[in-house]
Amino acid sequence: MPPRAALAAFGLVFGLAASAGAQPQGQAQPAVPAAPAQAALERGVRAALGRDGPADFAAAAAAFREAAEAGSPDAAFNLGELYRAGKGVPQDTGQAAGWFARAAEAGFAPARFYLAVLLFNGAGVPRDQVRAIELLQQAAGQGLPQAQKALDELHHAAERMAGTGR
Fold it and tell me: For residue 52, what pLDDT band results from cuts at 50, 70 and 90?
């Protein structure tokens, strides 16, 4: 699956699951946000998943923004995914990249993967394939299987282009 398709398959559900405590095996845990940030993050997850009624992505975005601004990388990632998907906020890959970058800087592997895909494809940000590969390597090193798969596919594509692939 090319990185762009991998991004679409990864989706909002992964971000919300990560925020609810499920981390990819071997992934380094980002710093635990302070209690107010954690409470806002949990409000955002409940709103997005419709745990207190119908899903409300606008409320989720507001809660994720509050938590992200208070230092939650999970919330920054989830807000980025809402911007990428256009759920509760206008679809804006540039904004998505900014929030993914914030979470990636805090060591959140899924954000590194998403930001890498945007950078690799030049979606909402200037194309930077070197930085994209660095981010994929970091995320793969943290145990994120989607990142390793993307690196493997890029390697095989490069071999085919060079005429050395099978």
Answer: very high
122 secondary structure, DSSP code: T
Q: Tell me, what amino acid is at 97?
A: A
The string of pLDDT tens digits covering residues 62-118 is: 999 999 999 999 999 999 999 999 999 999 999 999 999 999 999 999 999 999 999
55 C-beta neighbours (distance < 10 Å), count: 15
Q: What is the CATH number of domain 3-20+30-162?
A: 1.25.40.10
Q: CB-based burial of residue 89 (10 Å sphere; 0-12 exposed, 13-18 middle, 19+ buried)?
A: buried
Considering only CA atoms, which of 139, 137, 142 is closest in space to residue 154?
A: 137
CA-to-CA separations, 79 to 40, 56, 144, 158, 162, in angstroms, rounded: 12, 13, 20, 33, 39
